[in-house]
Design brief:
The chain has five helices and 15 strands. By secondary structure, the protein is an alpha+beta fold.
């Protein structure tokens, strides 16, 4: 059941009711951060990538992953970060209530690329839960849904890329780099080639996610280089627009 807590704005002192959203774990169970009822909401004065994420562990399988940090906006214009409980707080609380917090002793193993090993992956499409998208209203929403989609595909350790792309926002995981382009113009040939060169230096695969699509020469070069291209619709659902992306989207249940 979704957890709801009162959140008081530190600026105007209005009180809001906040319900933590749940996101799907790789095992299919819904995962939501544990909210701290006794904590104090803090206003967001400037954005730092590391502060926009919080580590949450799945109660079903014990996996830990980075999820969007809970936030709520006040009508006075202040955006607040909702306090969450850290891992030790959750463990102590579970011990006090007698809940079992022991992780699954047999989580999906990973191969050297950071994706789930083939032998441990489900062998039927029905075993993979559907992807739950995040409605895109801002550039951060586009990054969030891309990070969730990469994790859903089987990539682990999704984070901000070390190298900043010429346009958009770079993400990286074990064995892959991805570019999220929230621009209002289609991604260009140069954008695609720069991503490919970055992936080459990292000895990794690469994927491109765009809100407004791609130019014809960008799509042609991506096909030549084997780069999967996705378009993010406003519902937050990544849709493949070339053959490499279609092949990847059709095999995410088997995470090679």
């Amino acid at each position: 059941m979704a957890e709801t807590v009162p959140v008081r704005c530190p600026a105007c002192h209005r009180e809001h009711r906040y319900t933590a959203p749940a996101y799907p774990c790789a095992c299919g169970a819904p995962v939501a951060p544990r909210l701290d009822r006794h904590g104090v909401a803090t206003p967001v004065s400037h954005r730092v990538w590391q502060d926009d994420w919080v580590t949450v562990h799945c109660r079903s399988c014990g996996r830990g992953g980075d999820w969007p940090r809970p936030e709520v906006g006040c009508s006075c214009g202040v955006v607040m970060r909702v306090p969450v409980m850290d891992a030790q707080d959750v463990t102590d609380q579970a011990d006090a209530t007698g809940q079992d917090t022991t992780p699954d002793p047999n989580p999906d193993p990973e191969n050297g690329t950071g994706r789930r090993a083939t032998a441990a992956a489900p062998d039927t499409p029905a075993a993979q839960p559907p992807f739950h998208s995040v409605t895109i209203r801002t550039a951060l929403d586009a990054v969030t849904t891309t990070a969730l989609y990469l994790r859903w595909l089987g990539y682990r350790g999704v984070r901000r890329a070390d190298q900043r792309p010429p346009s958009g926002i770079g993400l990286a995981a074990r064995g892959v780099v991805a570019q999220v382009d929230p621009a209002v113009r289609p991604a260009t040939l140069r954008d695609v080639e720069c991503l490919w060169l970055t992936a080459m230096t990292e000895s990794a695969d690469c994927l491109y996610f765009s809100l407004t699509g791609y130019t014809a020469d960008a799509r042609a070069r991506a096909d030549t280089l084997g780069i999967p291209l996705f378009v993010l619709d406003l519902t937050g659902t990544p849709r493949p627009v070339n053959e490499p992306a279609g092949a990847l989207a059709g095999t995410e249940n088997r995470a090679p």
